[in-house]
Amino acid sequence: MTTSIRFDLKHGFLVVALALYTAFAAGPFLWVASMSLRTTTEISAEPYALPDTLHFSKFAIAWTDGNYGTYFGNSVIVVLSAVAVLTVIGAMAAHCFARYRFPFRRFLYFLVFSTIIFPPQITIIALFQILVEYGLFNTRTGLVLAYVAFQLPITVYILESFFARIPSDLYDAARMDGYSEWEIFWRISLPVAMPALSTTVILNTILLWNEFLYAVVLITDDDKRTLPLGIQKYMGDQLIDIGMLATGLMIAIVPVVIVYVFFSEKLIQGMTAGAIK
Amino acid sequence: MEHTAGRLTSSEPGLGLRPVGAIAGFLAPALIIYFAFTAYPVVRTIWNSFFQVFPNRPDEFVGWANYATLLFEDRFFHRAVGNTLVWALISPVVEIAIALLLALALYARVPGSRFFRLAWFTPVLMSYVVVGIIWTWIFNFDWGIANGMLRAVGLDHWAQAWLGHPDTALPSLIFVTTWMWAGFNMVVLLAAMHSLPSEVLEAAELDNCGWMAKLRYIVIPLVRPTILNLMVLSFVGKMRVFDLVWITTRGGPLWSTETVSTYVYKRAFNWNTFDLGYPCAIATIWFVVVLGGVLILTGLLRSRDKLEY
Amino acid sequence: MGNVKLDRLTKRYGDADAAAVDDVSLDIERGEFMVLLGPSGCGKSTTLRMIAGLEPITGGTLSIDGEVMNRVPARDRDIAMVFQSYALYPHMTVFDNLAFGLKRRGFAREEIDRRVTDAAGILGLAPYLARKPHALSGGQRQRVALGRAIVRDPKVFLFDEPLSNLDAALRVSMRNELVKLHQRLGTTMIYVTHDQVEAMSMGSRICIMQDGRVAQVGRPLDVYRHPANTFVASFLGSPQINLVESGVTPGEDGRSTLVVGGARIHAHCPPGHSRVIVGIRPEDFYLPGEAPDDAVGASLAARVLAVEALGAETVLLLDVEGVEKDVTARVGRSAHTAAGDLVELTVDTRAMRLFDAASGVALDPGSTTG
Lengths: 277, 309, 370
Hints:
Chain A has about 280 residues and is mainly alpha-helical. Chain A is about 75% helix and about 0% strand.
């Protein structure tokens, strides 16, 4: 009797603690969501109130007047191109590392893999110089190339471990069925590795969508800025229009939230792939 | 007869064929990108660090001068190193301690654990830019919720401009990264715990092993490899932290939140010094420090393993 | 069409001293069902994979219908292979699995449909064509793997332990179906297995391999009755053949006297051997009254250690005086013996084989008589 009461108390305490932590973890996000629908005047009067009227028009204003439409478009173009290139060349390399034995295989894999822990500063200054020299500085193409190089190691790492688990008989069977190595990659490796591919696609999309350092170094024109840069521009203003900035933040967050709602398990899998042993 | 030449040559058992053309074709794009935009920049950065690199002017060789300056004279750099090291050493411990507690709470099969797991993971999905702006507001002196809560419980004199004071700015930012990453670490630890054999924990239950004892003697030792990985990950992440500082404080006030990354950025692109050689020297040194740190961290935690078993 | 010739085929991995496949020569006639039999690691699978083109050949030549195939890639050899793991494409339906090889070879849509429908009919797969492999049972997957080979109508079929993932009952029925399939198609088949029952029941010829080399090639019963060495002798037959070492006392009439336990056996033994290994199959022992009238026998006293009554037959584990290892005998179903009994067994010495004691090589196979 006593034990069960004590257990319930302990249990209740635990639930309260968990709920508090949840409010702590998710609260800031909900707060911005609420602010994004309120005017700056409303926010100044009462920063933590829920919206009275939902000013959805703020999104339209931010999109056009705040130039967020352009930033959003740039982010979409840059991220989608980088992810498409990453997926194809990352999968090709991973397939190769997993399915063939060749000289320097382990060395090359280690070389690519070890860059996962490199601080980006070690490349960014020279990358800036290189892109300037090739006329790719301040272009979306240059940023895409930098992003591909930046995310390549983790992409190859996740895909390689998946490709390595595909039974080699499958490849032999396709060879006997008359297919070349290249055709086998497209018709066997890629379709069979669909789960791992979607993991890397989602992971890379989110990480690059949020990327700031490369963008701030490699892009200077306002009409080429990605969303994090655009937001940061408003942050730098002396008179911050808090309500409008909150709307801008939501424009950056919403796609991530949508991806998370639909692919939360995939996304968690991808983000934690590097850490799980 | 020559069988070793030609396109099919021998190799290990199992993965027999070695079609050279296909291998080269599959690897080439990734390796070209890798060498052009990762390996070459790394080498060039190290090379630059021995020069003064000004635009529209030939590079001028200065030997170890950049290194001498930054090691023995540059007090800003020293401050940045100190701040970054504090961050990179405190964060892994704090984040993972909190994550362990959270993971254990969920591991005890609390109702709604799936929801908690999803909710706690969210901070890490937002960019540092977004997080930085939100927390600037939260730490705002007048209307930030941090001070609001202190005032609500009567601790008015504790209220302050958290990011505006040299003593509190860095701890506040460390607090923000902890808020961001604890949930992520929790999810990883939880996954590791769920892969533990349940018999071990049940046996401990039968031995009337207390909650803390179970944690101390069973769970932590068993998930040690995961903890090690997370620590390295957290360490590396904090050694390169840039966005959050740049958005919130730009290294201020009074250099109290300057990190090596923000300092490199300032010297390379923000101050009008134009010399790219000096920041390259900083980047090179930091590169070596990060690699060394990872090696030491891995070695340290590994050797403790050996002592215990 | 379908003659496969291996001429001193050799496979060496890296700088390993021992070759995985060493000097294997084998002439497989068209339409033959050749079984490569041996324990794991004997090189039989590697040999098969070299024939398939999945493993580079490091020595010797492989020719199919007189054409040297060493450098021809797998996809151009016109060979089909059934894998132990079935290797079905998990993302394709049964139909697409069967059609995959045909599509690559540019067959017309109708021809692909016809062939797939035919093969599905033969194998009883018609109801499952729209399913994916994960929705099939083990036996059905096995049939799809077979079907994938059949639709191709290749010069040669290769089988790599195709039945070893099936349960015992299914294995027996698939064995029969494979034999029927072979009779129906008449295509050359090369079949790798470590299961001597499969080899004996299916092969037109068996090639037994040991340590990368060919130990013996021949028709199943010839190999069973006249094994070339003790390895082959003990690999074929269950329970295993009894191998007993014996001294040789040369006699005057050209026959020598061997001693097995308490029995003295007269046999033709080529000169120059002071010790031999006598091989006696368990079924060549008879209990009193069971021996056929024409058996030429020697008598052997033994103590029964254990009795396995299997219904159709009885297997006795015996302790024979003077013989170190236990002796196994397979006697009639009506044997009334119990552990501990002393029995007097008759050995049919005509079926007895002699091997050199040092090398294990058979001595003048087929010439021993009582």
